[in-house]
Design a protein that fits this description.
By secondary structure, this protein is α/β, with parallel strands linked by helices. The protein is built from 16 helices and eight strands. Helix 11 (291-299) links the parallel strand 7 and strand 8. Helix 7 packs across helix 10 (242-267). The longest helix has 40 residues, at 400-439.
């Protein structure tokens, strides 16, 4: 059968609008130029085009799929997603191994360039300001088990290490209970200086948000407080403190804003709202507070809004005049009304980006190993979150699920409104019948005309909703 005889599948309204945005901005042309060096001109296995590859990773965010196997299966199962990535019905969808190999071939810098391209699109549409930035971090569960950790010096497993300790203490044939008893008496049992994962050496032992101890990575976001867009995302070792990783994320966000300022000067776009002075204000939580951090942030020309922890006694500032000045200035700003409003907005927007990217976006647990591989997925994943801001402005929803839920709520509101109108009409019928008896048939004709107009407006409203891809199971009972 010729492919021209195959029935064309209707596209999903959300992905159709997303493809329209990508096509209008020249997405495929951009990624093909950036990825040309990774493709051989004549030889090699059948390749996956850059446009299909990056769209496949975007599906992971919009559909809430963390693993590349799940992305490949969902792409093969959905006709709407086939249409989104541009695969005909007579063509095979990419296998998960093809997606994985393409990811390994394309370097991190190219994935970062795609993320920067998304920021440029948001800037031209007036969705990035870049003046006020909030930074926060969260932990991602690594694709490695605690039971598999080994010693950094000898390479012995945890059970082998405990068995050696038991024999050294005089127990020749230790049982499992003996090993557990001996392990409970030890202090700092799983220090990252002594233990590592043999399958993912970048993973570190850390405490997760729910209190569990697991091998993990640390993701850090820099969020624009005026629009909610993520300006920079970095992946750090989970055992590094917030005061250590702040500078890298802040510098990455500053470079991103500077590139947007240069692009604005070259293009002279009218809708852009980017701040020409770059980042001027930094907002963070208590974990980022230290005198050295406040001093460095001030040296960058950025005003800090970081709340302080409760401390016992008075601090000693001997030989730390600059840190003292920066601390007092930060304290005064935090206590003001403007500082309190910034901290409240930080808790709203930064946590929202974590919830969308890692909870509903299904990347709280990593399915890849190594920071480089995880960062590649993370850059495109967070890029999908930034693209959802454009779709939310156009459609009122940033994901297909949100569009479906909004549509359902709209139909429910319409149903409740019709039910309320029916109750009002029932109450008015008694009054109308009395007026008909008094006024004759003219009042009855006017009431009938109003009912016909009401049904007509409702009918056209439902047709307009259904034309935007809503469920077709809505019925109306006059």
């Amino acid at each position: 059968m010729a492919h021209t005889q195959l029935a064309a599948a209707p596209g999903h309204p959300f992905y159709e609008r997303l493809n329209a945005v990508l096509d209008a901005e020249g997405f495929d042309r951009f990624v093909e130029q950036r990825c040309a060096e990774f493709y051989a001109p004549r030889f090699g296995r059948p390749s996956l085009t850059p446009g299909i590859y990056f769209r496949s990773l975007l599906i992971g965010y919009f559909e809430g799929i963390g693993a590349e196997r799940g992305i490949a299966w969902r792409l093969a199962d959905s006709l709407a997603l086939r249409r989104f990535v541009g695969i005909a019905l007579d063509e095979n969808t990419p296998d998960h191994s093809t997606i994985s190999r393409t990811r390994r071939l394309i370097d991190v810098e190219t994935h970062a360039a795609v993320f920067a391209w998304v920021l440029d699109v948001l800037s031209r549409r007036g969705l990035i300001v870049g003046k006020r930035v909030a930074i926060d971090a969260t932990t991602l569960e690594a694709n490695a088990a605690m039971r598999s950790i080994v010693r950094r010096d000898t390479g012995a497993s945890y059970n082998e290490f405990l068995t050696g300790l038991a024999k050294a203490s005089g127990i020749e044939t230790p049982t499992r209970e003996d090993l557990a008893r001996l392990d409970r008496k030890r202090k700092k049992r799983t220090s990252n200086k002594e233990w590592k994962s043999p399958v993912d050496e970048d993973a570190r032992v850390a405490k997760m948000k729910d209190g569990r101890t697991h091998l993990a990575h640390k993701a850090e976001h820099a969020v624009d407080l005026d629009s909610g867009a993520v300006l920079a995302v970095t992946l750090q070792a989970a055992d590094q403190g917030d005061t250590t990783t702040l500078d890298e994320t802040l510098i990455a966000a500053g470079n991103a804003v500077a590139e947007l300022v240069v692009a604005r000067a070259e293009s002279r776009a009218s809708k852009t709202k980017i701040n020409l002075r770059g980042i001027e204000e930094l907002v963070a939580d208590k974990g980022y507070l230290s005198g050295a951090v406040l001093k460095r942030v001030k040296s960058y020309g950025v005003r800090s809004y970081i709340p302080e922890k409760q401390q016992k006694g008075r601090r000693r500032w001997h030989g730390k005049a600059e840190e003292q000045r920066a601390t007092y200035e930060n304290r005064r700003r935090v206590r003001g009304n403007y500082g309190k409003s910034l901290l409240k907005r930080r808790g709203e927007l930064v946590e929202r980006s974590f919830a969308h990217c890692y909870e509903t976006g299904a990347m709280r647990r990593c399915h890849l190993r190594g920071q480089e591989n995880i960062l590649k997925r993370q850059l495109i994943h967070v890029g999908g979150f930034n693209l959802s801001l454009i779709l939310r402005k156009m459609l009122g929803a940033g994901t297909p699920r949100e569009l479906k839920n909004r549509a359902g709520r709209l139909v429910l509101r319409l149903f409740l409104w019709v039910s309320g109108q029916n109750r009002l009409n029932g109450a008015a019928e008694s009054r109308t019948s009395e007026r008909i008896e008094e006024g004759g048939s003219d009042a009855f004709q006017l009431s009938s005309m109003l009912e016909v107009l009401e049904f007509s407006y409702l009918h056209h409203g439902l047709l307009a909703l259904l034309s935007h891809g809503l469920p077709t199971t809505v019925s109306y009972s006059p």
